[in-house]
Amino acid sequence: MSDLTLDPATINTSEGPVVIVAAGSQDGERASSGHRHARGQLMGSLRGLLSVGVEDGQWIVPAIHAVWLPPHHFHSVRSHGPFSGWSAYVAEPACAGLPSRPCTIRTSGLLREAVLRAATWALEPLGAQRERIAHVILDEIRDAPPAPFGLPLPRDPRLQRVARALIDDPADERDLEQWAQWAAMSSRTLTRRFVAETGFGFAAWRQRARLMRALEMLAAGRPVTTVAMDLGYASASAFITLFTREFGATPAAYRRALPAH
């Protein structure tokens, strides 16, 4: 299916193909309010960051990773900027061996190519060859290790406003006091509530937001020095040091390990 929007009846029944994939892009932000459906869903972005909300929290997922949502899990989705991506909907019986909790996974080249191939299929019974591709998608979801690339969003609307502003412009140089004033709260309250609602201190969360955007920029082929400067780091070496500490590999090594486009 090439349209990003599927009939709700299609994703609320196990009848039909075991895997149904929708893919596409749009120039503006993509957003869906909280909902649930009977099929499991694996969603990935080819361009842009996704903000995914579930019942017990929210997190940010960069391009080249995907979010798995088991059947009937309440969730909402928003892209940050233009969106290009896909969603694979898995019939509930086939979800029995897949993760039972929402999680993020690294999108392998095999998984990405399989879902993009499946996105071209009409909504009709699968032949033997397509059944094999569908089961490759299931195997990849089952075997992919969870990826610790999520970034939790705070629940407080004032803190969410700060968080979303930092996601949209990670290089914004306002300090803690200035952000607190902008959010109409004290810096002490902002600091305390950020830790309570995200598990990260404000500075650590801000740094991780920059690194999430760095993953996307590296995947798009941007030079390491350009990424560092565009995200507001004092130097390329400072960026490389922080990136390596967080992800266990240099930015250049991380990019070499990405699936080929």
UniProtKB/TrEMBL annotation:
InterPro entries: Homeodomain-like_sf, HTH_AraC, HTH_AraC-typ_CS, RmlC_Cupin_sf, Tscrpt_reg_AraC-type_HTH. Gene3D superfamilies: Homeodomain-like. Residues 160-257 form the HTH araC/xylS-type domain. Keywords: DNA-binding, Transcription, Transcription regulation. It comes from the Bacteria. This is Helix-turn-helix domain-containing protein. The lineage of its organism: Bacteria, Pseudomonadati, Pseudomonadota, Betaproteobacteria, Burkholderiales.
